Amino acid sequence: MKDVQSQPDFRNIPIDKVGIKNLRYPITVRDRREGFQHTIAAINMYVDLPHDNKGTHMSRFVEMLHLLRPEVSLEKFEAILDNMKQHLNAASAHLEMTFPYFIEKKAPISTSPGLMDYTCSIIGTSDPSGKVDLISEVVVPISSVCPCSMEISEFGAHNQRGEVRLSTRFKKFIWMEDMIDLVEQAASCDVFSVLKRVDEKCVTERAFANPKFVEDIVRDVAKTLNEDDNITWFSVSAENFESIHNHSAYASITSG
């Protein structure tokens, strides 16, 4: 049968990324407590396309995902990036995998258990020289109390739920749980899925005893990462979904 994708193209324009996006696929990832965790990822896979190639072979991307089964690991990321380049005659390859990651978290006083879900990503790139770049990313819900509101108000202070996005490059493997813990410790208070009345009292008082601007949150995370020799690069952003404004408060820091 005629292979249309392999025909030449005469427009002389290379394409940076071509492939498939938002493919849902079952995966198994490493879990610090349980060993492994089954989840479902949204996957993006791309390669570059030379100026004289008409198209790439989209079906091959899905076939190569079987290399990841049954576990997603940094080693398998490197292997599949290499296979993408070889099987698609590409100079560079990109693989992005985003998935919900569940951690059992107990309420602070009653110790009632509940599952918290965090959006996690692993992003990998292999460049034309064969160098592989890997980034781990977590999105963590947090709560914050406004220091300014607390200072100027006679009663209480406005508080809100927020979201912190942390991306890291590293020398050796870093647990998603460690990245999540770091973010939660930098917030006014962390967020729980199950709280009894005694727990609500505890987390409310804990947050009001620890007011934080978005600037404070990203600086506290950055300070810890700057002191960690294992971290070679990071990007952290905090967004508060303000309770008294029709906009969000936002801050971000990216290391040099």
Offer a quick outline of the entry:
The chain has 256 residues and is an alpha+beta fold. The protein is built from six helices and nine strands, in the order ββααβββαβαβααββ.
Give a verbal description of the structure.
The relative contact order is 0.12. This protein folds into 2 domains: about 10-130, Urate Oxidase; about 130-255, Urate Oxidase. With about 260 residues, the protein is α+β, with helices and mostly antiparallel strands. A hairpin with a 6-residue loop joins strand 8 and strand 9 (about 250-255). Strands 1, 2, 3, 4, 5, 6, 7, 8 and 9 form a 9-stranded antiparallel β-sheet that branches. Helices cover about 25% and strands about 40% of the residues. It has 6 helices and 9 strands, in the order E-E-H-H-E-E-E-H-E-H-E-H-H-E-E.
List keywords for this structure.
256 residues; alpha+beta; Urate Oxidase; 2 domains; nine-stranded antiparallel beta sheet; 6 helices; 9 strands; 25% helix; elongated
Look up the CATH topology of the largest domain.
Answer: Urate Oxidase
- Broad CATH class of the largest domain: Alpha Beta
Give the low-pLDDT segments: none
- Overall 3D shape: elongated
What is the CA-CA span between the terminal residues?
51 Å
Mean pLDDT: 94
Instruction: Provide a count of the helices.
Output: 6
Percent in helix: 10-25%
Order of helices and strands: EEHHEEEHEHEHHEE
Q: Superfamily at the CATH H level of the largest domain?
A: Urate Oxidase
The assigned CATH architecture of the largest domain is Roll
- Relative strand content: 35-45%
Over all CA atoms, what is the radius of gyration?
22 Å
